[in-house]
Amino acid sequence: MPLKNHVVIVTGGSAGIGFAVAKRLASDGYHILINYNSNKDGALACQSEINELDGACSILQFNVKDREQCESALEGFLAENPDLSIYGLVNNAGITRDTLAGLMSDDDFRDVVETNMFGSFYLMRWCAKKMLLKKRGAIVNMSSLSGQVGNGGQLNYAASKAGIIAMTKSLANEVGRRGIRVNAVAPGIIETKMTAEIPFLDQMKKNIPLKRIGKPEEVASVVSFLISNEASYMTGQTLSVNGGLYFS
């Protein structure tokens, strides 16, 4: 089956890292399915840029933390596109609700974990079932430096991203014998709208061995590698993209 018939789902593909990942994978030749929750304009902008590059792209709205909504939307997409087959998944959608643990509400903790970790689980489970039938596929889960080392004010976010690393290893163990690879990427400080709001960003750069923050395209290139056959003997791994801020 040609790559243009291989669908790679990119959740949260309407901005930031997800936007860059979608564009890069489209340039690799895959049919990209951009998921968005509320930022339809961003998803359409990404689709437009991919189309300008003669890439194949569709957009699909659903909230990743709503299992029924996820599965219904994806099943509907496949029913409308019988020539396409699910080949890859990039679990990129995520949120933050940063505050000190003593001030964190139950809702702040629950919303982050349900979106970041439950959402990734719902998509991994659904995609794995499709991939097992074909005995091929690649999943890349977006973790974070916070999930590797923890971070003050991000107890909920760090917990969700650490959980993603553990889920990556566990699923890799389950499905590897059927030709499906599952890996994770852990970005550090990346140039996005969210990081632009970080106080003392210039001071933080001084602690990074490469002395700068990363670009979304630099994360996208690692995701591209893990989805491709170039990484055919890699599974259960977490690749850090952090400029040397943490040596994993």
Automatic annotation (TrEMBL):
The keyword ATP-binding does not apply. One of its GO terms (biological process) is monocarboxylic acid metabolic process. Signal peptide: none annotated. Residues 6-192 form the Ketoreductase domain. It holds the Pfam family adh_short_C2. Keywords: Oxidoreductase. One of its GO terms (molecular function) is oxidoreductase activity. PANTHER family: 3-OXOACYL-(ACYL-CARRIER-PROTEIN) REDUCTASE (PTHR42879), 3-OXOACYL-[ACYL-CARRIER-PROTEIN] REDUCTASE FABG (PTHR42879:SF2). Belongs to the short-chain dehydrogenases/reductases (SDR) family. This is Ketoreductase domain-containing protein. It comes from Halobacteriovorax marinus.
